[in-house]
Batch of 3 targets.
Target 1
Amino acid sequence: MSQNLKSWDVDTDEDTMKDLYLCFSLEERDYAFEVRHLTEILALPAITTIPGTAPFLKGVINIRGKIIPVMDVRLRFDMIFKPYHERTCVLLVELDGLPLGLIVDTVNDVLKIPQENIDLAPKIGESKSSRFIYATGRVGDTVKILINLQRLLTEEEAHLIKDIPGN
C-alpha cells in the first residue's frame, strides 16, 4: 500500500498535471484553466450572502468547517445572470493561498492541451473580461478560451475577501 502512496510524489504529480486544463462552459462558450489550481468540484451548495460585497461575489459556503468565498464567474465576466440549474457547480480553487469557489454553468472535462497548441489571446477590444483571458488552446477543431485565475481578483478584492470572517 505504501508504494501506491509514493506514486503521488509531488514531482510526479506535477508532471502528470502538465498541460492539463479543466474545461467549463459559460454562455455556451468553452473556457479552461490549469487543473493544478483545482482543489475540488462541488454540486452547488447553499450560499450565505454577505451584504455590501461586489455583485459577482455571491457570498460564502461552508465546506467541512472552512468558510470559502464564492464568485459567480458569469457575473465577473460581465455576462447576464442566469438562474442556477442542476448542472451548475462550484469549482474550488486556490489563488495565492486564498481558497475561492467559482460558480460555472457546467463542467465539461479535463483536456490535455500541449504548449504548441496554445496561442496568446489576440487583443480584441477593451472589455473588462478580456483581462482574464491570456490565451486560446486548440483542441481538435475547437478553441478553448484559457483564463488566468490570478486575474479574477484585483489585489484590493483579494484583500477584502481575506477579511471575511473564517478566512
Target 2
Amino acid sequence: MKLLFPFTYERYLAKQIYAAFGFILFALVALFLFFDILSELGSVQGGYTLPLALLHVLLKAPSRISEIIPIAGLIGSIYVFAMLASQSEFTILRIAGLDVKRGLITLTKISLPLVALTLIMSEWVGPYTEAKSDQIRMKALGSAYSSQFRTGVWVKDRLRNEDGSGPVRSGVRYVNVGKVDKDNAIHNIRMYEFDDVYRLLSIRSATSGQFDETGVWVLNNVTETRFKETKQSDPLNPVFSSQIFTHPILTLESEVTPQILSVLLISPEKMSILSLGRFISHLRDNKQDAQRHSIAFWKKVVYPFTIFVMLALALPFAYLKVRAGSVGIKVFGGIMLGMSFQLFNSLFSNVGLLGSWPAFMTALTPPLVYLLLAIIGLRWVSKS
C-alpha cells in the first residue's frame, strides 16, 4: 500500500474509496443476483432443484462483478468526495497543495487495483464459472446448447484433401450442426463442400460426432454423396454423376473446433479477450465479417480502463460547495451519469456496427467523450 500510495493523503483517499466501492459493489451484485434468481425460478423442475438454480446464479456472480465494477467505482468515489466536501476535508487537502493534476494522478493509482480486479474477473474467473454454471444447468435439465437458428449452427470451413487431411486446397465447406452437448459431442451434422468456383463437390450427413485428442472430428453413421462432372463436348451443358457412400465411422480434419462452436453459441460480449482474438482470426481466414466481434474485442480491452474515467468523473463533485446540494443528490447524479455512460456505450457500438466504423475507434470513443466531460467539469469547478 505504501509503495503505491507514498503520501498520507493518497492512502487516506484510497481507503475511503475502496471501502465505499466494496459496499456499493456488494449491494449492486446482490440486487442483480436477486433478480436473476427470480427469473430462474420458472425453470426449476425435475432434477433442476432450487439449490442447483441458486448455485447456477451464484456462479454467474464474477461476470456480474466485472460488468458492475466501473459503476460501483463511480458511485463510491462520488459518495466519498461528496462527504469530504461536506466536512471541509477536501478543502483542507486543497490548501495543503492537492491540485487537479495531483488529484488525477492519485485517482490513476487508485484505479490500478480495480483495473486488475476487472481483468481477473472478466478474463479468467468469469468465463470459467460461467461455463460451469451452464454445465450444471444443462446436466440438471438434460438439455443441450442451441442457437438462434432453427436449423442449428452454421460455420464456414476450409477444404483439405479428399481423405480429410493434408494442406488446405481451394474451395469451401459449410458445416451445419444441429446441437452441441455439454461434453462437446455434436449431433445432426451436415456438410456441403464446393470448389473454388462454387460447384458442389459433396454432401455429408452424420448422426453424431466427437472431437478426439488428435485434433480431428470422428463422425458416426456418415452418408456421403459425391458429385463429379462428366466430360462432354458441349461445355454449356455439363453432365454430373453422383456416388453415394456410407461410413460407420469417418475421421475428418477441420478448423472447426469445439471452442469455435461454443463461441458461436454465446454472445461476443460474454467471451474473453483471448477467445475473441482466436475467433476473429478464424473469421478473417475464412473471409467472413468480423466487425461485431472486433468491436466486442476492443470494448473488452478498453473496458477495464474506463474505471479511471469513472473516478475522474467523480472528482468534480469534491469541488462542489455544500450548499450546492446534499450528498444524496450527488450520489443520485452519479448513478444517472453511470447509466448514461452504459447507454451511450451500447448505442455507439450498435451505430459503429451499422456504419462499419473502425472497431478500435468505436470502442474507444465513449470513454474518451466522458473523459473529456470530466476534464471540462474539473476546469469549471476548480475555477469557481
Target 3
Amino acid sequence: MNHPWRNRDAEHKPAQLAAAARCGFDIPPTLLTNDETSAREFARAHGPVIYKPLRSTDYQNADGRALTVWVEEVDPADLAAGVDQTVHLFQKRVQSVADLRVTAVGEEVFTVRIEGSPGLDWRRHYDTLSYSLIDTPPTLATRVRQYLDAFGLVFGAFDFGVDRDGRIWWYECNPNGQFAWFPEPISEKIVTAVADQLHHAGEHRAR
C-alpha cells in the first residue's frame, strides 16, 4: 500500500529513531557506533544491552533459506575489535512483561498484546505466544498517526515493549510488516481494513 520510495525511506533505522523521538515515543537509550570504546562505555552505563540489525538483509544459507539477524543481548566481553568493521545499533534492554504489535492501516489502528515469549525476540516463538486484540491507548494512536504522516506512509507495523510499570517503549516500525500469523479473528480484521484501504486508494478521506 505504501509507495516504494516511502518504504525505502522508512526502513532506515536512524531515520526511524529520529522520527519516533519527534513524535514523542519513549525510546530506550540507544547508540549507533562503530567505535569499540564507545560501545563498551554504553554497555557499562546502560546494561543489559541488546544488539539490533540496522536493516533487513538478504542473507541466505547454503540451501537458499533466508537468514534473520535476531535481537540478542550483548555480552560486554564480546565487544571487541570487530565492532570497528561497521555501524552497530546497541540499545538498553527493556525488562518487558509483554509486547505490542500495532498495525496501522490508513485511519485504523489494531493493537495486539503479545505474551508468553520464553526468549528476548518473540519472533522465534510464534507457537508459544498468546495474542489479544486490545484498545489502542489514545496517546499511542496519535503518535502512530504522526509517525506515519512523517514518512508519508499508509501502512505500518509497529513494535513496542511494555515494562512492569505499564510504560510503552518504542522498538521500531516495519513499513512492510506482516500480520497473517495472528489468530484468524485478529488477522481477518486487518485483512478487511487492507482491502478497504485498497478499494478507496486515491480517494480523499476526511480525518
